[in-house]
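If you are new to this repository, start here. Below is one unmodified record pulled from the training split, so you can see the exact layout before writing a loader.
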Amino acid sequence: MRYTPHQYQDYATKRIIETNFIALLLEMGLGKTVSTLTAVDLLLNDYYDACRVLVIAPLRVADDTWAREVEKWDHLRHLRISKVLGSAEQRRRALKANADIFVINQENVEWLVSELGTRWDFDTVIIDELSSFKNPQSKRFRALRRVRPMMKRVVGLTGTPAPNSLMDLWPEIYLLDQGQRLGKTITGYREQYFNPGARSGYVVYEWKEKKEAEQRIYEAISDIAVSMKAEDWLQLPERIDREVPIKLDEESRELYRKLERDLLLPYKDADVVAQTAAVLSNKLLQMASGAVYDEEKGVKYIHDAKLDALEDIIEAANGKPVMIFYNFKHSLSRIQQRFPQAQILRKGKEGVQDIADWNSDKIPLLLLHPKSAGHGLNLQESSCQTVVWFDQIWSLEEDQQANARVHRQGQTRRIVVLRLVAEGTIDEDAVDALARKAAGQDALMDAVKARIERVQS
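And here is the target side for that same chain:
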């Protein structure tokens, strides 16, 4: 296929070439992969300013997306991709391949750093999903930090740079500039831009932004962060977000309140116990959806209210495909039991076929987990106009990435995103939390948004 880049894609490619370390905060659907590959091709073969390129990506993206993009576009087909995946021996063979670009999944970053050590020879590193390195205590961050001084160029790609709060930004920006803008340590970053909030003794559980900290952070990173929103550059069809209130029967509501109050639901065979706040939150979300795991990993059924609502939604779709996101295995099982025609997205070659079948309307109901369907999947070619969140989640990043599987470049139909929200439950809190996080994310994106017309004028 011939590549005719949009104006913003030309700009993104140019910035990669001109800037040794850069964060491209491109919202989903803006074609960040082909823009980056175009820059890599120029750096390798025109400017001779890159020799050995590494791409770090989520597993499914590493296994499929980058190689597929190279095959898709005429001007990139000469690039050779080596997938550093599979067993340790397979990964070692892949590292020795005669290739232009080496692609590895995030989970194997620690292995790669250990394998190469001081022999690290990747002068250009592309981190495709930069926000996956937001935890400074994670093994993947610590490993990449050790070899960062040996990299000449680093490109960070993400549409959700601060999925939870501005605290997430420090590790991501550090991997780009090694602490030049936000400080050398997370402690220093906190002290400069945040005040301690809720704490227990010496342990701080919450950090609150200092006055004008948000603006100061944006200004500090603006020269190496290019932000672009899909709504500014793409004529996407309308997306409508709606909550579908789910009324629980009194028996279900009493069980929910009892667990919330007593942290225990006694049963003859195995109890449902919530020993910590995190466990309680998860258990309550499960109950809001209709079932909950007990201490023996068995499932206690609570209600079918969401299944009934889902049945109404599917009927109202009038035969058009419906995409359904679930978060719990028992939700998946119950949906499959009620709707035998529903199909999950499989892995490997079967998954590639599933994507093709979905895009050609051969799958009426597609069941997806947000963690496995968040990156690199193009599912916008079907006639689907209805996306349903059966279970509610807390992660803004997963929510935005998942919804962007259908509401992205190439979509021609209006999309309706429906969230099944059990009234009077933690479902409502989860949806409200996502809205608050989205507001913060939008502020970041707007603050460092690329003003391409102004730059070119």
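Two things worth knowing about this chain: The CA atoms of residues 306 and 312 lie 10 Å apart. The longest strand covers residues 239-246.
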